[in-house]
Amino acid sequence: MFELLIEKLSLNKSIRDIVSFFYMRNMHTEEVLSMPYNERRKGSVVEASYTLRYPEHKPDLDKWVIRQTGVYHRCDSTSGQTLFIMFNPVPNAKASITAAEWLSSRVGGSETDPVWLHKILLETYFPAWRFYIASLERQFLPLSYNTLVNFINEPSTLNPSHLTTLVNLSNHFLTTSSILNSSEETLRELSNLCAHCLKGTNADLLQESISEFENFQRQCRMFSHTATDLYHRVQTTSQLLANTLSFREQLDSRKQNENMLRLNKSVVFITTLTLLYLPPSFIATFFGMNFFDMDSVTGRIISSPMIWIYVLCSVLLTTATFGTYYTMREGSFLNLKVSGLRDLSWRGLFYRKQHNRAVELNALPV
Q: Which ranges does the record mark as transmembrane (predicted)?
């Protein structure tokens, strides 16, 4: 049907480019890309096509989405014939309803405006940019205020997730500025198209239409400047928040280091006490063993000839302790072997063994 329409009406191939910008998407691909203004002139006939991006609010989800509408316009300044084809992203779009109402009100009228659909499209969707930017600004201002009044050494509700929110807002403002810059170029070309389509007609209507498109350009430029300014403010706030979080982490690290120093001093004190009391404790324990006894006659200490058992056991136990430590420490040969056995899948080995056995049984002659 679409190809038949192109063939019967001899439409420019740029209309296919408009269709290529409408497809099902599950990601934000080509969110900024818009079809630039294309124009083809042949005598008194001018064919123009473009897509216009704009924000639209979904009340049921309370969120904004970026949509686009495509327009194909063919105008013959000699015969006064005008053809419009509008591509909408959803059925019963607001611009379609407004255009149908405009046509119904102009039935039987004498005065015609060859660029009326462009005006309706801009009047319907263009003011939404202000509310979209304002909604993003309402998300940004509380974060900006909390970041500015936040002190490093005081408790704060700010965390790294707020930095992610600021980066997301920054991307939205940058996207908005890019889309509006592209729209401004399209509006400039539409103003020139208006001068061509209304050439030789009502001079008042020509001047009025050109003024309207120039006003739309000014609004577009104003929205773009606002989005750019907010983008720079978000960038500054993000940098300030990142620095604040970094300094806060450094302050926490400093406090932890101070606590470690205090703990080290305590450990040094305890170690000093241990070194002070350890030799007397060892001497008292050593001579308090049953290997020693006091001769009541001579008043001398008598040692048992079996004291070598204590010396031997002490040497063996000490050797075993240090040997176990050096054998099982990280990076040693035995430690690597134990880690390999721990990671080994015994169930997999069992199944592999059963499989190999089944293969061997199947290979036996019957």
A: 267-287, 307-327
Angle between helices 116-125 and 160-197 in degrees, nearest 10: 160
Residue 3 DSSP symbol: H
In the chain the first and final C-alpha atoms are separated, in Å, by 71
Residue 112 — φ and ψ, nearest 5°?
A: -125, 150
Note the pTM of the prediction, 2 decimals.
0.70
* CA-closest candidate to residue 32, choices 143, 236, 231, 177: 177
Give the contacts of 256 (CB within 8 A, at least 6 positions apart). Answer: none
If phi > 0 it is left, if psi is from -120 to 50 it is alpha, else beta; for residue 20 that is alpha
Alpha helical stretches, state H, 10-44: 14-20
**Nearest-angstrom CA–CA distance, 286 and 38:** 103
Q: What is the pLDDT of residues 20-53, one digit of tens each?
A: 888 776 667 778 888 899 988 888 888 899 999 9
Measured distance CA(52)–CA(213) in Å, rounded: 14
Partners of 85 in the β-ladder: 72
For residue 39, what are the β-bridge partners? Answer: 48
User: How far apart, in whole angstroms, are the C-alpha atoms of residue 156 and residue 141?
Assistant: 17
